[in-house]
Amino acid sequence: MSDPELVEQLLAGKHRALARAITNIEDREPGYRELVSALHRHTGGADVIGVTGSPGSGKSTLVDKLAATYRERGLTVGVIAIDPSSPYTGGAVLGDRIRMGSNVGDMDVFFRSMSARGSLGGLSTATADAVTALDAFGKDKILVETVGAGQNEIDIVKTADTVMVLVPPGSGDDVQMLKAGILEIGDVFVVNKADLEGADRTVQELREMIEYQEGGIPGTAGHHGAVASVKESGDSQSDETGEDWQAAIVETVAKRGEGVEELLETLAEHRAYLDASGRRETQARLRYAEKIRTLLREDTNELLAEEIERRGGLDRFVDRVLARETDPYAVADELLEPVEACLDGRRGRE
Question: Which domains are seen in the chain, by residue range?
Answer without folding.
Answer: 43-277 (3.40.50.300), 293-349 (no CATH)
